[in-house]
Amino acid sequence: MSSLTFILSVLLFQLLCTSHPCQRILTSAAAGGRWQLLQKSIGISAMHMQLLSNDRVVVFDRTDFGPSNLPLPKGKCRFDLNDTALKQDCTAHSIEYDVLSNKFRPLMVQTDVWCSSGAVTPNGDLVQTGGFNDGERKVRVFSPCSSCDWQESNNGLAARRWYSTNHILPDGRQIIVGGRKQFNYEFVPKNIAANTFDLPFLFETNDREVENNLYPFVFLNVDGNLFVFANNRAILLDYVKNKVVKRYPTIPGGDPRSYPSTGSAVLLPLKNLKASAIQAKVLVCGGAPKGSYSQATQGEFIGALKTCARIIITDPNPKWVIETMPLARVMGDMILLPNGNVLLINGAGSGSAGWEFGRNPVLNPVLYRPDNKIGTRFETHTPTKIPRMYHSTAALLRDGRVLVGGSNPHTYYNFTSVLFPTELSLEAFCPPYLEAKFNNLRPTIVGPNSMSGISYGKTLTLEMEIRGKVEEKLVWITMVAPAFNTHSFSMNQRLLVLGNDKITALGESRYNIEVRTPRSGNLAPAGFYLLFVVHQDIPSMGIWVKLQ
């Protein structure tokens, strides 16, 4: 980030801090957060979503929905003889949404990206992999620039990837795990390993004729191995040696949490990063009871799961601890907020993922406070007015809002005579920490002038401004990796609590805060992160930093 860009970012934040979007244009408001309608229609349904380091969000659905409501510019058309809906399509199935201007522009994908996966590389490019039909072995790249569009390479994958999961590795590569009828994994780029590697665990967790193991939940553990969850259980995988180094117990009750019995999961914030042994905890929430998908195909919609399961994956004898949510939820999303809390949002109260298989939309977001005592961690927030069912998405933005879009439980775009019409709108949920009454507690990052790159294991000093009384023990810095969100899972989502090593008063409500950056790529793979200062649970606007 250049000095000029940083200064403009700070000036913009100072403007927004006195008149934040969540404090100006509201569609609904209450003590438990606020909702803001951003766009009535972006022309496509937001099935996949990724925030990039230029504060723009890449959104796409699929090419075989038929024509979208957004034309491609300048007479462009896509010609694809293999497409199952349109051989010639002059409409867009992807957009770039500019958060700061609240505007969007159409993008052009060449082949079908339906139910695909992706991740952002260390240089900031979005690499998206797989999809359906002629898109199932494609690798596509989108670079963050104002005029960029999708670039596609033929057969960049060794296997068909549909309903797979991607994760960035410490060496900068992506691992792509699973997918429909794919009990293996592979890497991109293929400069080290070109082939696929068998993963029998995915075969073991495949329920016959239902699956319940697609879009596995994958997290990089602090030891460099991968935690891989599918169906109702997990393993720790040494992906270099292709060896399972630990098997975790089945979640009590044995109900599935993976697609189509879709729950969600997060790696909880990593803390105490200077310790020789760092704990890593995973939280899995919601899903559908056994048999829900099969029953839904027969018109019977079973109530969703109301439980979360939490486990310390670094423990030598790990056990799941069960917690009860205020609301049952299937197809929900879990978003890490800058202060380390978790937001559960979107989804249904019964049924399962799949065409027309969800019922009873869950309109209320729920906040989960992981550091509270068990039994006091959940808090129900203000409901939206827009059902977000199958094929909905959510993503954290730099200003602390959560962008929400999508919902299309139909084979095509369908706006009439259906229970839940195709949804083309974008809205934002404003968590309670964005309310104006907290402005005196809210930090503003005012320096340094350049954050073009930070290194591992180094001291980092930020200058901040807090107008009200500062509680030094309640100030800390967090780093958040923006995620690729689809099908109720945010791939590569990661939050590190850097803490607060030292605070120095500078006068006129300004302070320096010192922290230590993560010591290795096992804790935080290289790439772009959002850096926040948090004071009494109230976060600043984030700034982009590049860890290298």
From TrEMBL:
Organism encoding this protein: Gossypium lobatum
Protein name: Aldehyde oxidase GLOX
Residue ranges occupied by any Glyoxal oxidase N-terminal domain in the UniProt entry: 47-433
Signal peptide segment: 1-19
Sequence ranges assigned to domain Galactose oxidase-like Early set in this UniProt record: 442-546
Gene Ontology CC annotation, any one: extracellular space
Main localization category: secreted
Entry keyword set: Oxidoreductase, Secreted, Signal
tRNA-binding keyword on record: no
Location within or outside the cell: Secreted
Any GO molecular function: oxidoreductase activity
PANTHER family: OXIDASE, PUTATIVE, EXPRESSED-RELATED (PTHR32208:SF62), SECRETED PROTEIN-RELATED (PTHR32208)
Source superkingdom: Eukaryota
InterPro entries: Gal_Oxase/kelch_b-propeller, Gal_Oxidase_central_sf, Glyoxal_oxidase_N, GO-like_E_set, Ig-like_fold, Ig_E-set
